[in-house]
Amino acid sequence: MTPNAASTSSGPSRRSFLASTAVATAAVAGGMPLLAACGGSDGGSRDGTTSGKDAKKLLPTYVASDVVTPDIPSRNGSAVGFTGKLDLAGLVTSVPEKLGKGSKVTVMSPFWGSPPKGGNAYYRAMNDLIGVDVVWQNQDGNTYDQKLGAVLASSDVPDVVVVPGWNMTGKIPSAVIGKFADLGPYLSGDAVKEYPNLAAIPTDAWQRSIFGGKLRGLPMPSSYVTGIVPLYRQDIFEQEGYEVPRSCDEFMALAKDATNARAKRWACLDMKWTAFNAFGVLSGEEKSLGWNQVDGKLRYRIESNEYLEALEWTRKLFAAGVVHPDAELGKSNATDPGPKFAAGEFLIYNQDSSQWWSRTAEQAGQNPEFKIWGMDIFGHDGGDPTLWAKNPAGIFAFVNKKASKAVIRDVLALANVTAAPYGTKEYMLTNYGVEGTHYAVEDGVPTKTDQGNVDVMNAYVMIASPAATIAHPDFPEVAKGQVEWQQRMGAFTRKSAFYGMQITEPSRWTNLSNDFEQLEDDIIRGRKKIGDMQQAVSDWKSKGGDKLRDWYRKILDENGPAAG
């Protein structure tokens, strides 16, 4: 039996999905309203670019859910948090009447792990609750882009297709516009009130769901606060009397003090992601987020002095010998760092915040002294950091535009159940399955049975999700820590010019910045020099970067920048 916290940290990215072979719960999150845009063809047109005023007409009316009251409310873009034990008798109903009318709905979605057989007890219970016959066409998440391209190029498209944001490349965005239905007539304005759980999805997650000038996507929202946390061994820090660093100089001093190669202890793994945050470098998560206005001019993240300074500081960590040899060899992101972190071979690493809970759960039975915690991101000079928001939704479900009105309404009935908030009967069924068959609750903690670990995987949770929620009934102190970390970091988080816009770059520039990540890694490991990056940036400008800047400038002139 495997315990599973009803946990959702920062919405699921490819990194967090692939970090686990058994994604058992949805990761959900939220944010604030904005304008949206959709990029267009290779010719540089912006088919469906939607201005703020026009986008407003498309968006569903936001109606906050009052079904469940969280223990920790959202602040500064954070998730809401639940820190109590789970009381099955206290679960409330958020969907009082079955909205589905019995349609058969085929759904194609990425799946990590071995898909269960159709017609299993979990699928039957969900379909009965919703009133819809959902038939899953699960595809390998690791090769999903290939299957997605082939299906969208064919005439045989399922009723619902889930598209992760990282697969929005090549011809996929134009296929989304051409193949999928406008949900505006069913959801825009007050129409969404027929589906209260969908109405409670934050507005800027819907904003990201505008493709080609129409509201087409059902979103899996995500908190806009960075999901990359510097995680550290709090127990060892306390034993050794180490202070959590508040600047890059303090980090270096701590790293040198903590490292003892003869004793097989190093300070950290590759800290590049934290360096980017410490120096205020624009987000590299999505290309459009890497652009921002500086003194009225658009600048890409790689053009900034801060970018070079972050690389240089990370290089100094490697040069000082404080980085674990696995990272020196480039293994740190390819292998599971958990065992060596638990063994104390290194004390700090940066990774998706979901590992705050997963590492705690892994070690709870075998190493009771083990304590992992999240380090606040510091400004490089000891001041407050400047952090940049990530986008407010990352995975979308679309409905075939050939679907009948009856099927569309049944898909929305399905989404209204899967978007139910934590603390409801619908959430428990969606995320845990049937009590007694798929899970049991012991001392307020839901624990998956072997059958639960087979049947209740990443299926229904991919359709639509509630606003950002973090709840770990087995480790409530971790849930509290994660939410409060997001709240503190959210206070320093800004939205860059294209935050929340749905943009697809013209294909002739798609690969323009592909080689920068490898060059970054070569520089910080001493294989290349900062001068090589400066030359690469110069080449990037001449090979299309400056023209791409002009293309983004036109979008900005027509839509205005993100607020905040």
UniProtKB/TrEMBL annotation:
The keyword Transmembrane does not apply. It comes from the Bacteria. Transmembrane segments: none annotated. It is found in: Cell envelope. Keywords: Signal, Transport. Belongs to the bacterial solute-binding protein 1 family. This is Extracellular solute-binding protein. It comes from Streptomyces cathayae. The lineage of its organism: Bacteria, Bacillati, Actinomycetota, Actinomycetes, Kitasatosporales.
